[in-house]
């Protein structure tokens, strides 16, 4: 029996069944309030559909919720000085165009992907309703690994998408906004959405396959942090408290905004080390050096 048949058979089983949480609690184990709440989401419901609904609702809430503070910044004059490309305004028309495409992508591309994820993930070893839930140490280690794996995938795929034919056919859509704003993080061609998305879900599946099991709670925490990172990187704002000012290896908006403005360099998503290692931040470094020099000369003149 080939792997596709196994996955399809497993999916059919998941669609037809419901979860009985009384069978999920180990004998003699007393679930915490958080564990009881988690199990209650699935109790008497179809596991596949419930997991997909949780994933989709969480994604929408986190994605657009993370964007709202940056949207508010657009209307606070005192924060204008932190906008990276201050000379380029984001119009209401641009925001609506972005939102319309995003909703189509979320419902008709990402939604079906979420629906198809669990049957494969369960075969790889993803836990959903199993107890106990993971502790913070386990979650922290696994999420750190997922960040590194996703960043590596993103770097090389992103470089590939800047190859002429692929850029013109696919990646050019994402670069319609040379001055990005938070909501543009997932504004992309459907093929790009699918391929880049493999870096997000691939880490947990690979971890399950070669290291150890991953719980769905960890998976959702990872996706939440990944969405925070993606929206922040496209926010168009660089604040004194931005993470890259505390962790120099973190990419952040300062790093990625240059990529949108110049269409070159800075292909990583979360970290700066791949661009530095492979010399794909040379123009960015020269740009930052010119900025620093101009700032020093201005301060001296004042």
The counted number of beta strands is 0
- Cα-to-Cα separation, first versus last residue: 76 Å
**Spatial extent as radius of gyration:** 21 Å
As a percent range, the share of strand residues is under 5%
User: Order of SSEs, N→C?
Assistant: HHHHHHHHHHH
Morphology call = elongated
Helix content: 55-70%
Low-confidence residue ranges: none
Describe this structure in words.
- By secondary structure, this protein is an all-alpha fold.
- The protein has one domain (50-301).
- Helix content is 63%, strand content 0%.
- It is built from 11 helices and no strands.
- It has helices at residues 3-16, 33-42, 47-73, 92-124, 136-161, 164-169, 190-210, 216-233, 252-262, 273-277, 282-301.
- The model has no long low-confidence stretch (mean pLDDT 93).
Describe what is shown at a glance:
The protein is elongated.
Break the fold down into its secondary structure elements and pairings:
Layout: H1 3-16, H2 33-42, H3 47-73, H4 92-124, H5 136-161, H6 164-169, H7 190-210, H8 216-233, H9 252-262, H10 273-277, H11 282-301
What brief labels describe this structure?
302 residues, single chain, 63% helix, mainly alpha
């Amino acid at each position: 029996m080939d792997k596709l048949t196994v996955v399809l058979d497993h999916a059919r089983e998941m669609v037809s069944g419901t979860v009985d949480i009384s069978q999920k609690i180990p004998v003699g184990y007393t679930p915490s309030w958080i564990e009881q709440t988690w199990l209650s989401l699935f109790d008497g419901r179809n596991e596949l559909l419930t997991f997909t609904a949780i994933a989709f609702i969480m994604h929408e809430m986190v994605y657009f919720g993370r964007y709202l503070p940056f949207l508010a910044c657009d209307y606070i004059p005192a924060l204008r000085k932190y906008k990276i490309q201050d000379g380029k305004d984001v119009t209401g028309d641009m925001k609506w165009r972005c939102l319309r495409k995003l909703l189509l992508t979320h419902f008709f591309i990402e939604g079906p992907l979420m629906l198809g994820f669990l049957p494969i993930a369960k075969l790889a070893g993803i836990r959903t309703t199993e107890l106990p839930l993971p502790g913070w140490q386990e979650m922290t280690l696994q999420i750190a690994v997922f960040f590194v794996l996703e960043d590596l995938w993103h770097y090389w795929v992103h470089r590939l998408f800047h190859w002429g034919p692929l850029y013109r056919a696919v990646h050019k859509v994402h670069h319609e906004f040379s001055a990005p704003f938070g909501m543009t993080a997932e504004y992309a061609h459907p093929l790009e959405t699918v391929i880049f998305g493999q870096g997000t879900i691939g880490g947990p599946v690979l971890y399950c396959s070669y290291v150890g099991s991953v719980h769905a709670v960890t998976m959702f925490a990872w996706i939440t942090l990944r969405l925070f990172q993606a929206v922040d990187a496209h926010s168009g704002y660089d604040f004194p408290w931005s993470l890259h000012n505390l962790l120099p290896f973190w990419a952040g908006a300062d790093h990625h905004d240059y990529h949108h403005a110049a269409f070159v360099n800075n292909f990583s998503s979360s970290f700066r080390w791949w661009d530095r290692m492979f010399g794909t931040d040379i123009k960015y470094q020269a740009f930052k050096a010119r900025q620093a020099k101009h700032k020093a000369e201005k301060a001296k003149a004042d």
